[in-house]
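Let's study a protein:

===
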Amino acid sequence: MASLIEKTFNGCKYKDIALADSGRLQIHSTEVKLPDLMACRAELVPYQPFKGNKITVSLDMTTQAAVFIKTLTALGADVRCCSSNNFSTQDHVAAAIAGDSAAVFAWKGQTSREHWWCIERALDWGPDEDGGPDLIVDDGGDLNLLIHEGKKAEEIYEKTGKLPDPSSTDSVEFKIVLSIIRDGLKSDPKRHHKLMETLVPISEETASGVKRLNRLEKYIRLILYSRITS
């Protein structure tokens, strides 16, 4: 069977657009249970506070995430999103988001390589859009890991010409990350530097993601949320 990566719907990657109507019904039902987000829409839509902002979202693709993503787009944001977990995507929800709100790269049962491929796509706005997002909403730290490890590898490559070596780690996941970074260096040796330049705040949902950020902080300067409040 061909990989789902080979299936394209409106520039996105998800299971089946025919599932969208079912997803819309579920999302509408969940909106009633999230009055704070609905109140934000009611009050702020006329002001479009996120107009012109590009936001990458990596969350479990559930109805709750869909209401959040719809709120971001209703407030003017351009959103690209992926799942933070290989098996947490609700396929009918992903189809509804793609049909109505945002670019989606998610389906239930992704392989690890497909998962990281989707993360790459969610970060990529193309060469005409300064390369990447202005803001990140992350769950588990995968977006942040890829960007910061990519920037570190680019610095090493610029100084020494050395490419990342996937065989240098025993972690299956990190082998994939290093492979992605290595292959990207060949076509754009400054990609992650450019991502860091356009990126302003980072939001992390989980304790595990915060722990990962704390580990990264020991080696790489993080872009801190305080930058946009100073």
Q: What stands out?
A: The radius of gyration is 18 Å. Strands lie at 54-59, 78-83, 103-105, 135-138, 202-204. Confidence is low (pLDDT under 50) at residues 1-7, 219-230. Residues 164 and 182 are 5 Å apart (CA to CA).
